[in-house]
Amino acid sequence: MKKRATGQTAFADLALATLGGPRTNALLDTLAAAVPWDKLVRLVVALPEYARYIEDPSRPGERPIDPLVMLRATMLQKWFNLSDPQVEEQLKDRISFRRFVGLSQADRTPDETTFVVFRRRLREAGLDQQIFDVVLKHIDAQGLLVKNGTIVDATIIGQSRGRKTGEKDEDGNDLTTRDAEAGFTQKHGTKYHGYKMHTATDTSGVITRVLVSPANDHDSKHVEPLIKDERRAVFADSAYSDQERRERLEKRGVLPAIIYKRNRGQAELSEWQKRFNRLVSKVRAIGEHPYAWMKRLMNFTACRYRGLRRNAYDFVMTAAAYNLRKSASLSAAR
Predict the structure, then answer these.
(1) What digits encode the pLDDT tens for the residues 286-308?
(2) If DSSP codes are grouped into helix, strand and coil, which group holds residue 304?
(3) What is the pTM of this model?
(4) CA of 108: how far to CAs of 4, 5, 82, 175, 203, in Å?
(5) CA–CA separation, 200 and 7 (whole Å)
(6) What ranges do the domains of the chain cover?
(7) 256 in helix, strand or coil?
(8) Cβ of 126: how many Cβ atoms within 10 Å?
(9) How far apart are the C-alpha atoms of 280 and 273, rounded to whole Å?
């Protein structure tokens, strides 16, 4: 695997060592300390593309770039919402970013195609979920998970609706560039096209599970895999309100802290249901914090890719990057 170009600290690196925005440098130092890089690198070097050069260092051919560099650049992409061309440009332009990923001024900067290939390798090997799991276990080992219950929620991430190509199919219908695996849905009178991110969140605000579906899937359709291991309480809004679900949870000894909604023929909720809903809402709101954080701080507001699997990879990696930022915040608040 390719390491630094020279293996030594160049004069340019010494001259630039103290440069870079102090706030960005401080943030990157904090985030770097929050990531279990060694464990993540072990996942990547087990891939055939890397393992073959570890087993036979003399093997001919172009060696892949150091996986630590690529993983650090991948996290930069998530934290700062950078496309492949943008991360290449930023690594060439920003001293703090270059220092963070471990590139000297003499090292070659990975180009956008390198990031495309690296992402494909991780996606095809299913490493997105493994990376998410390693990050979550690392956060748990630090004692940052509260484990007082699971909050379930979902959010829509929009996808381009495409455009007409000017051609028609064999039935005479207009062909478009629309993502065929994305779905249409409507919420509060507004139509959406895209995918839905379903999450289980700890009461500390850390995401513990992620599922991805077309946007037209109902929230409750994917709730069971999110709560299957919960043993204390499940907090959810009225979209998940179902008497059979409440009974199943109670049989498991789990508190069904799910917002009540009016049944057919019920004029209004009873007073105890209103009080119950107010209490649940205070906890349930924590499950919305990750979405607000990802959308506002990480600008995770639209799909970058076409197809369910590609977007599922992106959603899971974004959740892992969010968890790392959240864990740094939780550690600082101790």
Answers:
(1) 999 999 999 999 999 999 999 99
(2) coil
(3) 0.89
(4) 8, 7, 19, 42, 43
(5) 44
(6) 11-125, 145-309
(7) strand
(8) 12
(9) 10
Can you give the pLDDT at residue 106?
Answer: 85
Summarised one tens digit per residue, pLDDT across range 48-74 is 888 776 666 666 666 778 999 999 999
| Whole-angstrom Cα Rg for the chain | 23
Q: Pairing state of beta strands 183-187 and 207-214?
A: unpaired
**Could you give the CA distance from residue 94 to residue 189 in angstroms, rounded to a whole number?**
43
Chain Cα centroid distance, residue 127:
13
Q: Where does residue 322 fall: left (phi above 0), alpha (psi -120 to 50 degrees), or beta otherwise? A: alpha
Fold adopted by 145-309: Nucleotidyltransferase; domain 5 (3.30.420)
- What's the number of CA atoms in the CB half-sphere (13 Å) around residue 73? 29
- Give Cα 181 to chain centroid, integer Å: 20
Q: Rounded mean pLDDT of the chain? A: 89
230 pLDDT band (50/70/90 cuts)? very high
CA torsion 304-90-206-42 (nearest 10°) is 100
Residue with tokens 């381009």: 160
Within 8 A by CB and 6+ apart from 15, the residues are: none
3-class secondary structure, 99:
helix
- What pLDDT is attached to residue 61? 62
Tokens representing 102?
A: 């471990």
